[in-house]
Amino acid sequence: MMEYYRGALGALLVYDITRRVTFENTKKWLLEVRQFGSPEMVVVLVGNKSDLGSDAPSSSREVQAEEAQIFAQSEGLSFLETSAMGNVNVEEAFLEMITKIHDVNKRPKSFDANNMVIHDPLTLQMGKEVIHIAATKHAPNCCAY
């Protein structure tokens, strides 16, 4: 399963607002994304078929936008509803994910050699030893001209 997430920067978790089971399944997908994806992976929760979920009495909506919004906020996700049929907010869902990915990748990072994970700038953890490297200095006999 991990190979599906290797190198992924973001994920759209899409559910059908007219089928509650699909919303419940996004919770399982989120667990999988967090288990196999990188800690910095951006996740956007998307409720699709908003064209079928009007407030009219004949609405077939099974998942209220407020419920999904509360879930998204509690999990640190972005949230929006779309209508693929009406082409409403589809592009916005992707733009939201891309914008968040860009924001995450602008942050300064460093490398944890034990876990092969990027953390914060200029700190390397080698076993129990932590090496701090100043940004403007080179280590002795390394990269100096």
Give the helix/strand class: alpha/beta
Q: Whole-number average pLDDT? A: 80
**Helix content estimate:** 25-40%
The total of helices stands at 3
- Tell me the radius of gyration: 21 Å
Query: Proportion of β residues?
Result: 15-25%
Query: Going across the major beta sheet, what is the strand order?
Result: 5-4-6-7
Shape: globular
Q: What is the strand tally?
A: 7
User: Uncertain regions: pLDDT < 50 for 5+ in a row?
Assistant: 118-126, 132-140
Distance between the termini: 46 Å
- Helices and strands, in order, run as EHEHEHEEEE
Q: How does this model look, in words?
A:
It is a single chain. The protein is built from three helices and seven strands, in the order E-H-E-H-E-H-E-E-E-E. The strands form two sheets. It has a four-stranded mixed β-sheet with strand order 5-4-6-7, with no helix packed on it. The model is unreliable at 118-126 and 132-140 (pLDDT under 50). Strand 4 and strand 5 (117-118) form a beta hairpin. The longest helix is centred in the first third of the chain and has 17 residues, at 20-36. It is an alpha/beta fold and 145 residues long. It has helices spanning 20-36, 65-75, 90-106, and strands spanning 10-16, 42-48, 78-81, 111-112, 117-118, 123-126, 129-132. Helix content is 31%, strand content 21%. It starts with 9 loop residues before the first strand and ends in a 13-residue tail after the last strand.
